[in-house]
Amino acid sequence: MRILLLIPVMIISLIPVSAQSDPEAKTILEKVSSKNNSYKTIMTNFKYTITSMQDNETHTEKGKIAMKGDQFHLSMGNTDITFDGKNIYTYLKEANEINITKPEPSNTSNGDFFLSNPRDLFKVKNDFKAKLNNEINIGSITCYEIDLYPVNLKTKYLRIRTHIDKNTFQIIDTKIFMKDGTNYLIELSNFQPNINISGTEFLFDQKKYPGAMVNDIRF
């Protein structure tokens, strides 16, 4: 499965809320949303593990996200994605290829709203029913465990399980259960809010990729 198809799935796991959610789960998710929306900048590492139940295969990859306002820079493995506020530049290392696109409206049903605006990661959504299961310990961290069920049954996923630090209200990890038997486990680490991030972080420099094929598919 292509890397670009994996990134949007990750973002679905963060901060959706529905009026049909149980009150306690909704309150917790709204606290997470409110806290993260107050940050001017965010930088965090992540690791995701993809498991195919059909093929019994597992793939793990690490990456980093930096955000400032609507701008973002995401890098992982062989993919580097930069949004300067106007255009999205995606560099594919294996193909030595640069794709330039315009951001598109969010498509929550497919989990395809991260690349258009990663701030969606922290916005309250109305596409899920949330249920608080219990509290569990992940290492030394006491977490809320919340299951999220899509209101739209035509989505590509069945259920999302997320763990939230009880003390800091930050996402610790999230697992997405897809209808095709694929599971995604996303683990966040080294979360750094309100740090100084240079504006050059969000400017794509084509000179860094000599010989790369450029596909300008802005419409």
The largest β sheet comes out as: 12 strands, mixed
* Shape descriptor: globular
Q: At the fourth CATH level, what is the homologous superfamily?
A: Lipoprotein localisation LolA/LolB/LppX
Which CATH class is shown? Mainly Beta
Q: In terms of per-residue confidence, which ranges show pLDDT below 50 for 5 or more consecutive residues?
A: 1-16, 108-116
So how many helices?
2
Strand order of the largest sheet: 7-8-9-10-11-1-2-3-4-5-6-12
The CATH architecture assignment turns out to be Clam
Cα-atom radius of gyration? 17 Å
The termini sit apart by 26 Å
Helix content: 10-25%
Quick one: how many beta strands?
A: 12
Count of all domains:
1
Structural class by helix and strand composition: mainly beta
Determine the mean pLDDT.
Answer: 82
Q: Helix-strand pattern, N to C?
A: HHEEEEEEEEEEEE
State the main characteristics:
219 residues, mainly beta, outer membrane lipoprotein receptor (LolB), chain A, twelve-stranded mixed β-sheet, 11% helix, disordered N terminus
Describe this structure in words.
- With 219 residues, the protein is mainly beta.
- The chain is built from 2 helices and 12 strands.
- The chain is globular, with a radius of gyration of 17 Å.
- The chain starts with a helix and ends with a strand.
- The N terminus is likely disordered.
Helices and strands, with pairings:
Blueprint: H1 3-12, H2 23-37, E1 41-52, E2 57-68, E3 71-76, E4 79-83, E5 88-92, E6 97-101, E7 128-138, E8 141-150, E9 157-165, E10 171-178, E11 182-193, E12 213-216
